[in-house]
Specification:
By secondary structure, the protein is of the alpha/beta class. The strands form eight sheets. An eight-stranded mixed beta sheet has the order 12-11-8-6-7-14-15-23, with helices on both faces. Helix 5 links the parallel strand 6 and strand 7. The relative contact order is 0.10. The model has no long low-confidence stretch (mean pLDDT about 95). Bound molecules: 5'-O-[(S)-butoxy(hydroxy)phosphoryl]adenosine.
Length: about 625
């Protein structure tokens, strides 16, 4: 949706909350449906039971691919920049991407994939990852992408939870100086996963892998087979609007990650609409999103959102700091990128390398900037604005979640006013509300509270896979008739929203969501650990760091050796992304008489704010606090 003025945005916003169904009806009409819907929306937040565009038939890949072919088939859909800058980049036009998706869809069918099957994808950031995702959607299979940094155990947990029958992976992948042994990690995971009958392996890194007869096949061989079968076409499966499109696992405040479920129709409408609206995307602009497709950002804003709008999306295999900290700027110059969408942690990290390296590159093609994952602090905001945007690019600080499917609160580029540190105003169709502890609405401006959403939007999660009750409890039971985000939030005097961070036991480390309970469970697996408590603390680059308090009475004499062992355990159980930054050994944890750990106190100590620990009188043994304070790292 394009806007020419702030006034117009305000009018449309008002209309969207007074007549939401009419608003979404109009938005949805700009997509291609095989059959239109009978009801725009049926909902209740108690169950919850949410149905958008009921009765409609579609396939999201016809919107992302087929519908662009007649007029824009030769336009680049995906530009791919490899990890190693000396390797050639690739460009896939809409026509080429369409053909490759069809081919791989036929490969999936040849390997027994059917509508409704769950397929796990564990791949590096190569175009074939996007192709695999779209091929699943084309045949109506449900993809469950697992980020390449997760361990074999995490993959196994996700495969078992979703009962996947096929895995798509690669021999290995490159990220900076690292070689990721993806297939070997999958082999370790599959020892626990009898449901998996086929593993399709793309050649990427050419590292040695073991191929199990009858189970493992090479991507390239399978493509050759379908080539000899003739037609590269694969008709898209007709899906109901509310059929499942994908599962994406995310961490919560309990130990086990949950499978967030998105459905075909609503998710398509929402990602396409929000992509066009927030960035005010114009045909022909080159859009670069630095996220990995393993996270929701990559699903919604590398694959589905941009492609449904006929955009040109640049995907990058590597990391911003390799071969040096100029890599993103080099890519911007090389491809004349217009829109750069990245994360605060990347901005802060690149900031620390100084501006000389930035000045080596021509960034004049940039017209819009974006940020996601955590609050963009003011210092980083100004650096991004001045050094990268040269003061002429709006910064679209998009607040949203895996569960929301797409942007919720976000500036509209060149339309809504910007405030550093603020996500700003809700997009049309989104109804945020702040509530106090008791769920009472906090009205007016200049207030803070817990951020909830009071009306459905098409991109919202429908359930958590295999456990609807968990979905109800996590998001819909804290406050009656509201979706609870888990975030704290301030609404300033002008009604602009500033997200202040999670209010539950979830950490945001470099924009990745990590549950403290999950990390504790992993640490507790180590044989010398009796108990642990994990909290976050402010970290200059990562936003939040992971601080672990660990009881380990019979550890090695060398604490650092025990620390390394614990880090190894966390890497094995979850993945390197969850490794604690600090491990403090303690003899006890501050607990209430009922045995509950008082995390508030641990958080204060981790933050280095030991002078204001607040009331410790309800502790079972207030003495442990002094010991922990003294040993703080
Ligand atoms: C949590 C969601 C949404 C894609 C990336 C993370 C935090 C996200 C912002 C922002 C402040 C933000 C929130 C949210 N968050 N974007 N622009 N400003 N905080 O997805 O892993 O589902 O995490 O990330 O705390 O609840 P996610």
């Amino acid at each position: 949706m394009k806007f020419t003025s702030f006034e117009q945005y305000k009018q449309v916003y008002q209309h969207s909350i007074i007549h939401p169904e009419q608003f979404w009806d109009d938005v949805a009409k700009s997509f291609y449906w095989r059959k239109p819907w009978e009801n725009t929306l049926n909902w209740n937040f108690t169950e919850p039971d949410i149905k958008w565009f009921q009765g409609a038939k579609l396939n999201i890949t016809e919107n992302c691919l087929d519908r662009h072919l007649a007029e824009n088939g030769d336009r680049p859909a995906i530009i791919w920049e490899p990890n190693d800058p000396t390797e050639a980049h690739r460009v896939l036009t809409y026509k080429q991407l369409h053909d490759k998706v069809c081919q791989f869809s036929n490969v999936l069918k040849n390997n027994g994939a059917k509508k409704g099957d769950r397929i796990c994808i564990y791949m590096p950031m190569v175009p074939e990852l996007a192709i695999a995702v779209l091929a699943c959607a084309r045949i109506g299979a449900v993809h469950s992408v697992v980020f390449g940094g997760f361990s074999a155990q995490s993959i196994a947990d996700r495969i078992k939870d979703a009962e996947c029958n096929i895995v798509i992976t690669a021999d290995g992948g490159f990220r900076g100086t690292k070689d990721l042994p993806l297939k070997s990690v999958i082999d370790d995971a599959l020892v626990q996963c009898p449901s998996v009958k086929k593993v399709i392996v793309l050649t990427r890194s050419r590292t040695a892998v073991s191929m199990i007869k009858g189970r493992d096949v090479w991507w390239e061989d399978e493509i050759k087979k379908v080539e000899t079968q003739g037609s590269p076409e694969c008709p898209a499966e007709e899906m109901d609007a509310e059929d499942m499109l994908f599962i994406l696992y995310t961490s919560g405040s309990t130990g086990k990650p949950k499978g967030v479920v998105h459905t075909c129709g609503g998710y398509m409408v929402y990602t396409g609409y929000t992509f066009e609206t927030a960035f005010q995307y114009q045909q022909g602009e080159v859009y670069f999103c630095t996220a990995d497709i393993g996270w929701i950002t990559g699903h919604s804003y590398i694959v589905y959102g941009p492609l449904s709008q006929g955009a040109t999306a640049l995907m990058f295999e590597g990391v911003p700091t390799w071969p040096d900290a100029g890599r993103l700027w080099e890519i911007v110059e090389k491809f004349k990128v217009n829109i750069l969408y990245t994360a605060p942690t990347a901005i802060r990290s690149l900031m620390s390398f100084g501006t000389d390296i930035v000045k080596k590159y021509d960034l004049s093609s940039l017209t819009k900037l974006g940020s996601v994952g955590e609050p963009l602090n003011e210092e980083a905001w100004h650096w991004f604005d001045e050094q990268i945007g040269h003061g002429k690019c709006p910064i679209v600080d998009t607040w949203w979640q895996t569960e929301t499917g797409g942007f919720m609160i976000s500036p509209v580029a060149n339309v809504t006013p910007l405030k550093p540190g603020y996500a700003g105003l809700p997009l049309p169709g989104v109804q945020p509300i702040l509530v106090d502890e008791n769920g009472k609405e906090i009205e007016g401006n200049g207030v803070s509270g817990n951020l909830c959403i009071k009306f459905p939007w098409p991109g919202m999660l429908r359930t958590t896979y295999g456990d609807h009750e968990r979905c109800r409890q996590t998001y819909f039971s804290t406050y009656a008739n509201l979706y609870f985000t888990g975030d704290g939030c301030l609404r300033d005097d002008d009604g602009y929203y500033r997200i202040t961070g999670r209010v539950d036991d979830v950490l945001n480390v470099s924009g990745h969501r990590i549950g403290t309970a999950e990390v504790e469970n992993a640490i507790n697996m180590h044989s010398s650990v009796v108990e642990s408590a994990v909290v976050g603390y402010p970290h200059d680059i990562k936003g939040q760091g992971v601080y672990a308090f660990v009881i380990s009475p019979e550890r090695h004499e060398d604490d650092d050796l025990t620390r390394k062992d614990i880090l190894m355990t966390v890497t094995r159980i979850i993945g390197a992304i969850a490794k604690p930054d600090k491990i403090q050994f303690v003899s006890g944890l501050p607990k209430t008489r009922s045995g509950k750990i008082m995390r508030r106190i641990l958080r204060k100590i981790a933050e280095g704010d030991t002078a204001n620990l607040g009331d410790t009188s309800t502790l079972l043994d207030p003495g442990v606090v002094d010991e922990i304070k003294e040993g703080a790292l």
